[in-house]
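If your schedule permits, I should be very grateful for your opinion on a structural question. What I wish to show you is a protein chain and, alongside it, a tokenised description of its three-dimensional fold. Would you kindly read the sequence against the tokens and tell me how you understand this chain to fold? Here, with my thanks, is the record as I have it:

===
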Amino acid sequence: MPQEKIPSHRMQITDNLDELLSIFPEPIRLKLIEHPQKDNLIEVVMDLGRLPEGRFASEASYLGQTPVSKEDLQHCIERVGIFSSDNRAGIERTLHRISAIRNRAGDIIGLTCRIGRAVFGTIIMIRELIETGQSVLLLGRPGVGKTTALREIARVLADDLNKRVVIIDTSNEIAGDGDIPHPAIGRARRMQVSRPELQHQVMIEAVENHMPEVIVIDEIGTELESLAARTIAERGVQLVGTAHGNTIENLIKNPTLSDLIGGIQAVTLGDDEARRRGSQKTVLERKAPPTFAVAVEMLERQRWVVHEDVAQTVDNLLRGIEPTTQIRTVDDSGEISIIHEEPTQSNNNYLAKTVSLATPLRPSGGWRASGRMTPVSSLSSKQQKVNSDFEQMLEQSWQTQEPISNKVRTPGPNGEDWPVYLYPYGVGRSQLEQVIDVLNLPIVLTKDLENADVVVALRSQIKHHSKLRQLVKHRQIPIYGVKSNTIPQITRVLRQLLNFDDPNLPEATDLRLFSQAGSDDEIEALEEARLAVEQIVIPKGQPVELLPRSAKVRKMQHELVEHYRLQSDSFGEEPNRRLRIYPA
């Protein structure tokens, strides 16, 4: 493992701690001021009826023996900014973040006051990568310093490299609370986001309106934000962002964010190619060039793993090869060490779907395993050569596994082969499993297209995926289209492929199909919607308004109404937003 040294500058830290301490009640403030670990304070937690707690880098300790009261919480709330829809607030011109916990009535019953620090010099480990103009993705657990690194990257790009930098600051965590951004971001500009769900729109707006050379984004977490990031990268703008996940493997597993590293798709190989790779015919491969060319896994504050070629890393992981690991660390004196670890073959990587050829699959018993099968010495040289060829073929045959099929068939009521092995494509697996489990359908989900009896796919996927149509046509597998990923649509298709549909019989309505957690509140809301439909909307032809419910429960009610082939919409303002069901 080669190692090299790069000189660097010492880090400087500024945290405006006094401004945060000023919001606390006097007993808690004095306790924090006198605490020996004050400079290592990470956050202060205040929960109603419990002792206030200070969390430091190496320990957590109580800040007094008096439980937190409503007056204490109100004292803090009055001294911070307005709490937005994501329950976050800040202090004007500082980087501190105050997050609220509310009860069911919407009252604040807990506060998490997190220290925001501007650390100058934190990106010395990857500065040369930032200067190349490539897009950089930061990964890591909460609290490891992703946002701090983003803030410093924005300042370096704007001040030192004189680039036009725009920060998309969803929760005002990068540039601080208030309309005037914190000096820690230098000359970079900041765009605030009114609601977290609109972050992707502000990302596109920044590119279209303000001509940035660099866009800085914190916490890419939805599919829309992932698509917006790809759109920005394709316009030639450098992206620097963070995402939910500790490693690249986490993004590969996450279908919502996998597009950031190129997206993952199943590909069917030809016989020759599968034999050459020593893998199954259906393998996972990268779909497109990654949005971010460089990825950094922040293991600790001063220990990062750098992937300078994300495309190569993802390809290696999908083939079961451990990628080249570049570990960068920095010590207290600011000295950087870079260690390169050579890749090795992984034998049990779940992503690879391949059989390692490093260790032959030798027989575990019998004459050959015991070593008693030996060539007869009296054989001629020609026969010995033939035997030698045979030995070589036999040696190679140990590396071949017989195809395993776990299909177990039982006859159905009309002589059908049950269960039916179903290959889903683009359809939510959790919804499929819920319908199969609740209705007790004779269906088994399979990830192998070759062993499937039927394919169920979204209609939009069937329309745009000609390769899927060719594969099912070649294998003569029927394919059923689902209009959308909803329980009613999936239920109808599954009943149809099992020939359970009878136009003369009404569909059974099992409320468990539409309930996610199966709680009493969900079942009660669904029962209310069912009675409204069956007793008023259908027989009397009158619209019905239901009681106010949460967005999650309203979504379940919408799906139940769709099951009856009726229309519904939500109206009113939270928390009184409710459903209205219309007759056909």
Q: What stands out?
A: Residues 3-10, 345-382, 397-404 have pLDDT under 50 and may be disordered.
